[in-house]
Structures are given as C-alpha cells and as structure tokens.
Amino acid sequence: MGDQERLVQKQYLDLYADYYGAGAETAAKREIAAQQTMGYLTSVVGTRRFERLLDVGAGDGNVLSELDRRGIADELYALEISSSGIAAIHGRQLPAVKEARLFDGYHIPYPDKHFDLAVAIHVLEHVEHERLLLLEMRRVARRVYIEVPLEHGIGIRRSIAKGRPFGHINFYTPATLRNLLESSGLEVTDCRVVASSLRYEQHVSGRLRGYLKGAVRRLALEVFPRTAPWFIVYNGLAYCDCG
Questions:
Q1: Number of folded domains in the chain?
Q2: Least CB-packed of 24, 70, 113, 181 within 10 Å?
Q3: CA 76, CA 118: separation in Å to the nearest integer?
C-alpha cells in the first residue's frame, strides 16, 4: 500500500479524481474566488515580487492564472491531488508556470527552502492530516500564505452538512486556525478575518440579495470583530514565516 493510500481515504481520492470536471457555473465561481484571493494576498504582501512561488492544492489553476497575469512571481509551480485539476492547469498554458505535478496530498517533491512563498488556498479544510502538509510547506518555503473558510461557529451543523459533498472535513475559527499554524512550527506574522468580495456575494446570491448580504457581513465584522465570525461565515487568511 502506497503513502497516498495510507494518508488519503479512498472516498476522498474518488471525490477529487474528477473534481474539476464540473460545469461553467462552478468554473465562473472559482474564477471570481481566485480574483478575491488575489485581493487578500496583495493586501498582505503589497507590491512584493517573488522568484519562485508554489501553489499547493492548485485546483484547476484559477489562482495560478491570476498570479501569472499579475506577475507576482517569476516562476510558478503547482501541486494538485486531482488528475482533472492537473489537466486543466496544463490546458491553460500559463507562461510563468514551470511545472504542475500530481502529488499524494502530503509529500512535496522539492528541496528545502526552494520557494520564496508557498500558498494553500482553501485546501486545509479538505486535508485529513493538516499538520503533515503544513510541515512540508514549512520545509520547502521561506514564507507560507494560507486561506480557509471560517465555518466553525454557531451554525457548525449546517456547515458540516453543506461542506461534506465538497470534501470539507475541517472547520476553523480564527483562534483554531492560528493554533494550527503555530503548532506546525510556523510564525504567524499576519492573521485576518475577511469578508467575501461584493462580486463573489452577488455571483452566489444574486445582485440585490448579494449586495445586502455583503453589507451585513462587512458591517458585522467592523462593529463586532471578535463575535461576528461566531455567527457569520468569513474567510481567514494567514501569512507566516517558516524560520
């Protein structure tokens, strides 16, 4: 039995095998989410450029496409557990992408400190053994950027039910996210709770309802920054030094 079979249950291997073969509506949502992620990332790193950047759990390459378009790194690399994701990334033919490889979800096939930055965008909520992956990211990179949904609040039962078909098995609060990263040996230099972009809200919920939901979400976070994530789902992001 190989490492992948030991660390990733068959039900998840089967789920992710053709995970990126969905229709145009899902593809549009991922594209908007990738643009949202770039807004979060640039709010943290500013105008900084990187020599080599690794996208761990790169999906179908939407974030890679935005990274390539904005020229954030000279060289981009991708790892993905889904063969359909790797096929989609290769199909994009992005100039800055030097390599896109299928991997087992845990073992990163690069030497120590090979990358200036490694990112994992909405990946950890899918990972059965989060710290094993984070330790590998810490090993191969000088800095790590993490983004996850903050779904572990008063509506956790609903979050579990809604997330299960998509492979969400871990649920975070701002505190548990920080603890996970610090207990994996990462030095968290920036950790934020952020609301979804207006464009994302309107794509998911419609023009008027999305506008209203977004306004409520942003206002609640501004007025009640500590308690709002307990009642409303946000995104959590963290920028870390790897030591």
A1: 1
A2: 24
A3: 10
Predicted structure pTM score:
0.95
How many secondary structure helices (H) and strands (E) does the chain include? 11, 7
Reading the block at residue 178, the tokens are 């920080």
Tokens 């976070």 locate to 221
156 located within any domain: yes
Which of residues 172 and 14 earns the better pLDDT score? Answer: 172
Q: Alpha helices, DSSP H only, in the chain?
A: 3-7, 10-17, 24-45, 62-70, 83-92, 130-140, 156-163, 174-182, 198-205, 207-223, 228-231
Domain of residue 72, CATH code? 3.40.50.150
Q: SS3 for 116?
A: coil
Q: What is the pLDDT of residues 175-217, one digit of tens each?
A: 999 999 999 999 999 999 999 999 999 999 999 999 999 999 9
Residue 185 in domain? yes
CA-CA-CA-CA dihedral for 192, 156, 10, 59, to nearest 10: -30
Residue 81 is assigned to a structural domain of this protein? yes
DSSP-assigned beta bridge partners for residue 193: 236
Tokens in use for 223?
Answer: 């007025």
The predicted model gives 211-234 an average pLDDT of 97
Q: What is the pLDDT of residues 32-85, one digit of tens each?
A: 999 999 999 999 999 999 999 999 999 999 999 999 999 999 999 999 999 999
